Amino acid sequence: MSNDHIGAGAQATPEPLIIPLEECHTDAAKRLWSERFECDDEKADKWLYNARIDTDYVTQGFVAVDRTQVVGFGIAAVGSAEYANNYVGDALDLDVPDPTGILHILVVDADYEGQGIGTELVKCRLQWLATTDAETVIGTAWHRETHHDSRALFAKFGFERVATIEEYYLKTHGHTDCPDCEAECRCDASVWRRDQ
């Protein structure tokens, strides 16, 4: 399978093929992640490795493929309540059970947004999480005015917004992985929850 990123004007198949993340997808997923959100290479490598290899983390990655091109990907994980609270950071204290599912990164190629790929990636990750012991699923939606974000997807799948936090990444993790912010990310975000 090619690891190349699609070009402008490409057309998606009516129903994207969603498959588990494999090693042959990692370069394309990392490139897509960097193009859409910027990312620290070390962090991306760690997440993409854990999402396809049996490690101490219960993690699964999925990719959306159009023909032979990766046009989206998402990662889901299962962790303790402490892990879930570390994920959302110090700005919020979640009352969640052990274990809790987490919808991590969701990235769709800009040329393919609005074609149902994000929906299919959320659906597939929730189906995978339903096979685990996770009773609750959480996720965050990064609010960026120039981009689609996952707030509508969370609502579509029955999640409830727990909180909206101004300058979320600055307050929680100090991320600099934001192409819209020149230094530390000052974007707002919302935290979402769904009980299985």
UniProtKB/TrEMBL annotation:
What EC number(s) would the UniProt record show? Answer: 2.3.-.-
Q: Give the transmembrane ranges.
A: none
Where the record annotates domain N-acetyltransferase, the positions are 16-188
Keywords assigned: Acyltransferase, Transferase
Any Pfam family hit: Acetyltransf_1
- What is the top-level taxon of the source organism? Archaea
Main EC class of this protein?
transferase
One MF term in GO for this entry? acyltransferase activity
| Protein name listed in UniProt | GNAT family N-acetyltransferase
Q: Which species is listed as the source?
A: Halobellus rubicundus
